[in-house]
């Protein structure tokens, strides 16, 4: 079995390192020579030229740009795979908008498709690394058999769902849920500040209840995933006032941190800030 990991960034590199322990014929691919060099430094075989493989694991970036979801890197990977081995098992571990995997499989005539979004977190890689429970959805029964065998060989536990769309959506919902939790904490922090109350003391108090786990309110909701993934979900389901409200809450909170006054920031301004970043 030849395995190729496409994308050797924050996610793809630890994925490639883990897979190489189980499969001797493992190689990494990236369009960036720097990323290839970084992979070679830790003993991985890597190249800027895609090679034939039996299984391709896609771990490239996706973006939210100019008000739209950008799956261009994903499509580029799928196109290249179709030219080399259209019968390969293609495992998407990148964050996808709902319907991306099925649409691209039809467009490029790929029959073995699996969606298994990563849950890797760099802050606690020892607890939340490559090997942790993951959601898996597949295109068909043949894809399911191959994907389950592959992830079992990697000692990655799997929660199987009936469709690839559920697997795609699960990633967006997970990160959006966390976004909402932080936005709620930010709203309460604003409320506490207006009334000269200690938010941290309030948070500790309410978290003593068994079914409450209030998030911290830090410097606004940043990072690569949360601001992007909530927009992916909104694009799929625009009539979601709760999600729009969370974005506006974060915008207000960010503005407050900068000026020490509470100012209204429109969602359009918040999205513009996201695009610029």
Explain what this protein looks like in three dimensions.
It is a single chain. By secondary structure, the protein is an alpha/beta fold. Helix content is 48%, strand content 13%. The chain contains ten helices and ten strands. It has helices spanning 12-22, 33-41, 72-84, 100-107, 141-153, 164-194, 199-206, 226-236, 241-259, 267-276, and strands at residues 3-6, 26-29, 45-47, 55-58, 63-65, 68-70, 89-92, 112-115, 134-138, 158-160. Strands 3-2-1-4-7-8-9-10 form an eight-stranded mixed sheet, with helices on both faces. Strands 5-6 form a two-stranded antiparallel sheet. Helix 6 packs across helix 8 and helix 6 (164-194) crosses helix 9 (241-259). The protein is elongated, with a radius of gyration of 21 Å. The two termini are 40 Å apart.
Task: Write a brief caption for the model.
48% of the residues lie in helices and 13% in strands. With 277 residues, the protein is α/β, with parallel strands linked by helices.
The helix count comes to: 10
> Mind summarizing the main beta sheet?
8 strands, mixed
Shape: elongated
Overall structural class, as computed from helix and strand content, comes to alpha/beta
Low-confidence segments, given as residue ranges, are 259-267, 271-277
C-alpha end-to-end distance:
40 Å
Overall helicity = 40-55%
Q: Roughly what is the average pLDDT, rounded to an integer?
A: 91
- Radius of gyration of CA atoms, rounded to a whole number: 21 Å
Count of beta strands = 10
């Amino acid at each position: 079995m030849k395995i190729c990991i496409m994308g050797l960034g924050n996610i793809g590199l630890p994925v490639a390192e883990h897979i190489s322990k189980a499969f001797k014929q493992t190689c990494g691919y990236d369009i960036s020579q720097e990323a290839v060099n970084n992979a070679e430094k830790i003993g991985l075989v890597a190249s800027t030229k895609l090679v034939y493989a039996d299984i391709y694991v896609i771990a490239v970036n996706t973006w939210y740009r100019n008000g739209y979801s950008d799956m261009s890197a994903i499509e580029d990977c799928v196109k290249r795979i179709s030219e080399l081995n259209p019968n390969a098992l293609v495992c998407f571990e990148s964050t996808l908008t709902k319907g991306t995997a099925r649409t691209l499989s039809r467009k490029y005539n790929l029959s073995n498709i699996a969606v298994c979004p990563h849950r890797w977190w760099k802050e606690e890689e020892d607890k939340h690394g490559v090997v942790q429970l993951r959601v898996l959805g597949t295109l068909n029964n043949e894809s399911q058999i191959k994907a389950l065998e592959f992830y079992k060989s990697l000692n990655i536990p799997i929660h199987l769902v009936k469709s690839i769309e559920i697997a795609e959506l699960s990633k967006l919902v997970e990160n959006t849920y966390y976004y909402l939790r932080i936005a709620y904490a930010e709203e309460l922090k604003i409320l506490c500040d207006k009334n000269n109350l200690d938010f941290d003391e309030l948070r500790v108090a309410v978290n003593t209840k068994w079914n409450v786990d209030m998030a911290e309110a830090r410097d606004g909701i940043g990072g690569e995933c949360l601001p992007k993934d909530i927009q992916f979900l909104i694009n799929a389901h625009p009539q979601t006032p709760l999600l729009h409200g969370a974005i506006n809450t974060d915008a207000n909170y960010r503005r407050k941190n900068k000026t020490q006054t509470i100012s209204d920031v429109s969602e359009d301004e918040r999205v513009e800030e996201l695009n610029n970043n």
